[in-house]
Each structure stands twice: as structure tokens, then as C-alpha cells.
Amino acid sequence: MIIGSHVSISGGLIGAAKEAHSYGANTFMVYTGAPQNSVRKPLDKLKIDEGRSFMDENGIKSFVVHAPYIINLASYKDDTFNAAVEILENEIYRTIAFGSNILILHPGSFTDKDAHYGIDRIASGLNKVLKDDMDITICLETMAGKGSEIGRSFEELKAITDKVNLNNKIGICFDTCHVHDSGYDIVNDLDGVIADFDRIIGLDRLKVFHLNGSLNPRGARKDRHANIGAEDDNPKGKDHIGFECIYKIAHHPASKNKPLILETPWLDNKTNLYKQEIALIKNGKEG
Questions:
Q1: First-residue to last-residue Cα distance in the chain
Q2: For 153-206, what is each residue's pLDDT tens digit?
Q3: What is the per-residue pLDDT for 284?
Q4: Checking DSSP bridges between strand 213-214 and strand 225-226, what pairing results, if any?
Q5: CB 44: neighbour CB atoms within 10 A?
Q6: 146-168 burial, b if ≥16 CB within 10 A, otherwise e?
Q7: How many whole angstroms separate alpha carbon 37 and alpha carbon 71?
Q8: What is the number of alpha carbons within 13 Å of residue 50 lying toward its C-beta?
Q9: What pTM did the predictor assign?
Q10: What is the Cβ-side half-sphere exposure of residue 251, based on CA atoms within 13 angstroms?
Q11: E strands along the chain, which residues?
Q12: CA gyration radius, the chain
């Protein structure tokens, strides 16, 4: 099983790799800088070689990168769209320089237009940044469906993919909270949901999972992550997906050899449950 969590890049790649190792992880996910903006440290300040050496020494064979949230390729505003293209292009080159070939991207929100416009706009942006010689897969993330965001259905993700010229470089990140919140019944019909994904998009495009519980009932379209299997006494709230479902997803044939990344809430600014959650997902409730 390839499993880890989101970790901080503040200490460079070496800091991220050490944090992941402390959780018992053999992969991890980072942003190349703050997720809320495009301010980035120079690559030579991020201890990439040290990080790669530590990974090699400790059995961490790969990791994934997440693009910043501020990228909105679906925007009808030219300045927002052009900035999104520029930021994404920079993130692609930084991802490759880090030594990863998976970059996860929130597709975007159409705001004052409609989904058809947004889908066309996203594909146009991807066509501007993707080049034949890039060793990269941009993984469009399944989204919860809040507001006007695109990616709330497998059909929308398929529509984007079909319009990208180099769509061999497009994959999907399956976020369990988002899929549940958008209305798919992964709790009671996981195999059916996976079959729908395969029929509409194709399992060959499924490259990475985000394993998250949800604070909301199915179909709420709110995107609020919960700790895996959390009950009512958890300070961050109850998980409406549940441990049994997340465990089943992690051990499903569709998940084999794919990075499984936790983005579950921290209990406070010093405490998370990544180590415990990784152990539970690997081994079951008895640890």
C-alpha cells in the first residue's frame, strides 16, 4: 500500500520527507509553497537533493504535489484566467524539479457563466500549459459541488479530458469526501461508483486518492473533511463516511499501487492523527 498525508514544505523537501516518515508513511503530498497564493521560494532554497536522498534511504519512492487553490482556469475574467495559466505553468515546472510527476489540480469555478463555458475554459488553459516533452500528469480532482465549481460529476471531468489535446497527461484524483459530498453513494455502493467511474472516465486515468472523512451527509455539497471514522466526541466532528468505507476504498483493487493521501483535520495547531489513521487504514481497527 502506498499511503501518506499532506505534509508541510516549510522546511524544504527534506523537512516534508522527514515529517512523512514520522507518520509511518511511504508517500506524501506537498504544495510547493503556500496553497493560498503564488509566492514561492526559489527551488535552490528547498533542499530538494537532501529530501530525495532521505526518501531513497527510507523507502519513500514517490510523492505528489497539489497546485494552489487560487488557480481558476474556469474564470471568464481574462486577468484571472491568464494568471491561472501562468501560475499553473510555474507549478508544473516546480513539480518536475521536485522530482514528482503528479500535480493535483482543482479544475475551477465558472462563477457568472455556466458549466459548459467553464469546461471549455479549463481545457483551453490546460492546452496552453501542456507540452509533449513534459513528464507530468495533471490530476483533476473530483469536487464536492459547492458553488459553481466544476468536477462535481464524473461526466464533467470526462468532458474536460476529452477537450485536452495532450490528454494522455490528464489523470484524476478521487477525493472520498468530495465524491460523497457531491452525491455519490460510496458508503453503500462503492463498487457501483467505481464501475460508473470506469464506464465514464476509465480506471486508467485514476492516479491518486485523497482519503478523507466528511462532516456532512451525502449530497450536502459542502466539502468539510473529517477524521477517518470519527464519532460525535471527536473535537472536529463526526465522520459521515466512516472507517469501514475508507478501509474498503484503500484496499479496493482500483486503489492498488496508487498513492493514498490523507487530508484529515488537525485536532489543534500541534496535533494531527495522521500516524494513527495511516496505521488503521493499513491494518484495520485492531492496528
A1: 15
A2: 999 999 999 999 999 999 999 999 999 999 999 999 999 999 999 999 999 999
A3: 86
A4: antiparallel
A5: 9
A6: bebbbbbbbebbbbbbebbeebe
A7: 9
A8: 12
A9: 0.96
A10: 12
A11: 3-6, 27-30, 64-66, 102-105, 137-141, 170-175, 206-211, 213-214, 225-226, 260-262
A12: 18
